Amino acid sequence: MNDLIIASSPEDARALDAVENHHAQLAGALAQHVGAVVAAAEAGAGAAAARDELVGWCDRELVPHAQAEEKALYPAGLAMANARLLVEAMIAEHTVITDLVDTLRDATPVRAAALGVALQTVFGSHLTKENEQLLPLLVAAPDVSLVGLLDGMHELLGEHEHGHEHGHEAQPAAGGHTCGCGGHDEPGYPELDARAVPHAIRHATIFGALDAVQPGGGMVLVAPHDPLPLLAQIEQRAPGAFEVSYTERGPEAWRLLFVRR
Q: Of the residues 18, 51, 94, 159, which has the maximum number of CB atoms within 10 A of its CB?
């Protein structure tokens, strides 16, 4: 988000950051799951499992998040004359999202890939409205407390997702591999190009995508620089969870392959 947002309190400003970071994690996880569905459809193998993983994640994370928004955030927006029509449109988008998830449940591989891309597109547009229109209106309103609206709503903040451990740092081995395995190829893994993600939410988006990688699965990350601080943060969040290898080292892009052990 490029525009400066003036929050009515420091607490609301911190709450806004927390919500936006959780949105980025959801977007990253959805991109990973949809990428896996598309890759499976193209490979002609594992399509049903990838589809079921996407639907299961939506049932656990995406749909409850939408329901929590309607319960916690949207009533305040509906009460504001300058936000009411926006919120009504966003509620309609929730209906589209849940319908897409329901249609996905028994979809054929090609149809599941198309539905997944549609779901990612709708959700991306929805998050833009929320981050850049609704949330700024709520945090700027002197009679609205974003902290109060979010009280106890873990589905909006993602606090239930991880018990992060600290004190571990990733140390890439010689040749750029944290796994020391001599390198991996890239067998149709989904790719996340972090260069296209706004800097403020880049790490949160990557964390969300990696959280969605299943054991034995992987993800290709394209970064604008050598992401050593990011690797350290990933190791802190999930010590030893990933084998990491560089497949390209600049100067335009750094490509890293993450495979979950």
A: 51
Taking the whole predicted model, whether its pTM rises above 0.85 is answered as no
For residue 14, give the amino acid letter: R
Token code pair at residue 77: 């927006």
The alpha carbons of the chain give a radius of gyration, in whole angstroms, of 19
Contact 182, 170 (CB under 8 A): no
Residues 6+ apart with CB under 8 A from 221: 191, 192, 194, 206, 209, 227, 255, 256, 257, 258
Q: Residue 247 contacts by C-beta under 8 Å, 6 or more apart in sequence?
A: 183, 184, 186, 220, 255, 256, 257
Give the pLDDT score at 197: 86
Output the DSSP codes for 142-208: TT--HHHHHTT-HHHHTTTS-----S------GGG-SS-SS-----S--EEEGGGS-GGGHHHHHHH
**Of residues 187 and 131, more confidently modeled:** 131
